[in-house]
Amino acid sequence: MAMTRDEKATMIEELQGVLQDSKVIYLADIEGLNSVNSTELRRACFKSDVSLRVVKNTLLKKAMERIEDRNFEELYGSLKGNTALMVAEKENAPAKVIEAFRKKSEKPILKGAWIDNVTYVGDDKLVTLANFKSREELIADIIALLKSPIQTVLSQLENKNNAEEGEAPAEA
């Protein structure tokens, strides 16, 4: 069923809004997934806070072209065949969903990603993207790094105090 001109305009506006509001955008090929696999993929996306929708390439490209403060040009070559738009808050969430799903299926194939003004093109970038650390993971790493020296100093002070009081040194 063909879309009317008004339906296309509405879809382009909607896609433009999604692209404008998102910092993490993935394009994937999910063509050939049967209905059971498609449903499983949608469930996996939902659990990982990833929005998934199949889009028309021409409409997506028009929406991309309308956003002046973002450059999606490197992704235009990926807009062939079946395209699923995956949007998330966490940089690595869509890549982790794809990676996990690929353990039992050949699809989805990563066509490209746009994350905070950086473009990644090709399925060979999947591992790199999946290994990205989210903001929360980076903060946890920094806290762990800061905590370690403090714990060492406190342990040494405790050992020194115990030694001065004639007690056996505490385990570090």
Automatic annotation (TrEMBL):
One GO term describing the cellular component: ribonucleoprotein complex
Recorded superkingdom: Bacteria
Keywords, sorted A to Z: Ribonucleoprotein, Ribosomal protein, RNA-binding, rRNA-binding
Gene3D superfamilies membership: 3.30.70.1730
InterPro entries: Ribosomal_uL10, Ribosomal_uL10-like_sf, Ribosomal_uL10_bac, Ribosomal_uL10_bac_type
Keyword Ribonucleoprotein attached: yes
GO MF annotations in UniProt: large ribosomal subunit rRNA binding
Any Pfam family: Ribosomal_L10
One GO process term, biological-process aspect: translation
CDD domains for this protein: Ribosomal_L10
Quaternary structure, from the entry: Part of the ribosomal stalk of the 50S ribosomal subunit. The N-terminus interacts with L11 and the large rRNA to form the base of the stalk. The C-terminus forms an elongated spine to which L12 dimers bind in a sequential fashion forming a multimeric L10(L12)X complex.
Stated role: Forms part of the ribosomal stalk, playing a central role in the interaction of the ribosome with GTP-bound translation factors.
NCBIfam families for this protein: PRK00099.1-1
Family per record: Belongs to the universal ribosomal protein uL10 family.
Name of the protein in its database record: Large ribosomal subunit protein uL10
